[in-house]
Amino acid sequence: MNTIQLFSVSMWTTVLSAGGVSLWLWSRRRQEPALKALSGFCLSMAIWCFGHILVLEDHQAIGTLILLGNPLMPTAFLHFVLLWLGEPLELPQQLRRLAPLFYFTAVAVVLASWMTGGGYISPWMQFDGFFHLAFTGWLNLAYTVAIGVVGHLLLLMAFQRSKGNLRRSITAMFITGGWGFALSTSFIFPSLDINLFPYAMLALPSYAVLVVYSVVRYRLVEVNRWVNQAVIWLALLATSMLAMSLILALLAPLGLAELAQAPLSQLVVYSGILLVFAWLAYGPAKEFADRLVYPGAVLDKSTLDQWVTRLNAVRGWGELRQTAEQLWLKKSGVSASVNIDGRFDCPPGPVFVCEKHEQWDCRLQGWEDIAPSHQRLAEFMAKLLPSACATLERSLLLAEAERKRLEQQHLVELGGLTAAIAHELRNPLNIITMAAAQTDPRIREHISKQVERAELLIKDVLTYAGQIRLDLKPTNLCALTAATVAQIRQLHEVEIELEAPDEVWLSVDPQRLQQVLINLLDNAAAFVRQTPQGKILVALAQDERGALIAIHNNGPAVPDAMKPRLFQAFVSKRAGGSGLGLAIVRRIVDAHGGDVWHSDEEGWPVSFMIHLPLEHDEKETT
């Protein structure tokens, strides 16, 4: 292949590479609006190189016109810089909107060059015709260079004000710009009467690709994957060509140098040998590509296995988060946080966000200023975390189910034992009561009171340990509450105020609900009697969700240490109490599908709130 053919192949390759890149950039314009201008830059480069091809093919007139359109290339590049770096440079919108004026000026320069004969075709070295610049053509070139310098000055200003990936991208663009300048200078050799073949032109196909890669490498992460694959295949191609050359050199003495005349069987042998070389070269080539494109992001199998093992061995969400952050920091040296379904607060910076929708997923958030090599490594971690979250979730669910099963089994056994003991205690109490009938009246009264207390305790134990079956009936809660308030007021001689409408109807078990009210009011009265000017307020209201009953009193406040255990069995600060009253209240309210809680936010020292829903499934609690 002679030099003219090499030049033609280079130009055609540049047309295809720059044109293909231009189409790809145009398809990504919605992700990054500035890519539209960069697409125009690559397209104008492809058209300019096509002008050289037309000159070689003796279409000199149209080829000359295209080559004098040189100013459109840097103008498109300047437009891209204004769009891309407008915000980092704090450029006003008016300046960024001057792009049409720049294009108009470039077109004016091109038209002036056409009209004044800014270029001509003349023989040069081996070429029958090559493009030469005339006087106005040099002015055209000067304008082209000036616009390119302005674009790179803006890049320099942005470099000084930027950081992170934007700064890295600008650095890559400066390096690529230097490469492009070195390649383009050889095109003016003919105009300067320099008889040196422009071998640098042969590398021109790389320029458009490198310009785009320097921009999008830090903006569109998927580009790095494509470049990674391209490097692998280029390395394989080089290895294959070297292997084939070696094979032909070795077989030439055997009369097999003319590959075109080789039998089919020999071609199969050659292909098999070539595939073996390619297969052997694939691993090293891929490792080379990974180290070149993602320096420091190679994850060996032992490290990957360690990550999987440690992430799957955790026993809680906090431990999973801490383990993942430690593994990541140890491998990358870059701090990053892990947030699992919104459980944790994360500082600003890169975050692995694990979320569960239909299944667990992990996305990267705040990684824009992190180097692509670390982003690549983060993708490996992001693929492992969903599996670790799912494994931990299953483990916790199984552990919780087993805990509840053992707890339920224990409660059933304990409830049966308690009920049996309570029943058995009734006989000794009856005997004690009969024996006390013949004792001194004061002793008999004391024994009777203690027996009554024991009977009440047995009743509470049986209620708590047994099953609660509801007999649901439409009930006027206002009437039921008023009757219960009157009963407690007369029994304990305390002040009880009732605030309620005339009617609030719900489907409840009136006897069970009255038991709830009696327990709460009786408990409140016991404390209020010890307080000067003690008072109880019962408030009943209805909303769209159901009924709310509030029982307030101004007795001593519940100690903070007791609040978390207030509705547990055998927790009481009331002298003589069984410690089962509030536990029974919760069981009955739960059976109604409602909720009961203690509140500190109602303006009273002690407030118990009961919410009963409008509708609920009738159920039985054990």
Task: Describe this protein's structure.
This protein is of the alpha+beta class and 622 residues long. It is built from 18 helices and twelve strands. The chain has helices spanning 3-27, 35-56, 60-67, 72-85, 93-96, 99-115, 135-161, 164-184, 205-216, 222-251, 264-293, 301-312, 317-332, 372-436, 441-465, 477-492, 510-528, 581-591, and strands spanning 119-124, 127-133, 337-340, 351-356, 360-365, 473-476, 496-499, 505-508, 536-543, 546-553, 595-599, 606-613. A hairpin with a 6-residue loop joins strand 11 and strand 12 (606-613). Helix 4 runs parallel beside helix 7 (135-161), helix 14 runs antiparallel to helix 15 and helix 17 (510-528) runs antiparallel to helix 18. It is elongated. The protein starts with a helix and ends in a 9-residue tail after the last strand.
Q: Whole-number average pLDDT? A: 80
Task: Write down the oligomeric state.
Answer: single chain
Proportion of residues in helical segments: 55-70%
Distance between the termini: 94 Å
User: Judging from the principal axes of the Cα atoms, what is the shape?
Assistant: elongated
Strand elements, count: 12
Count of helices? 18
Topology as H/E string?
HHHHHHEEHHHHHHHEEEHHEHEEHEEHEE
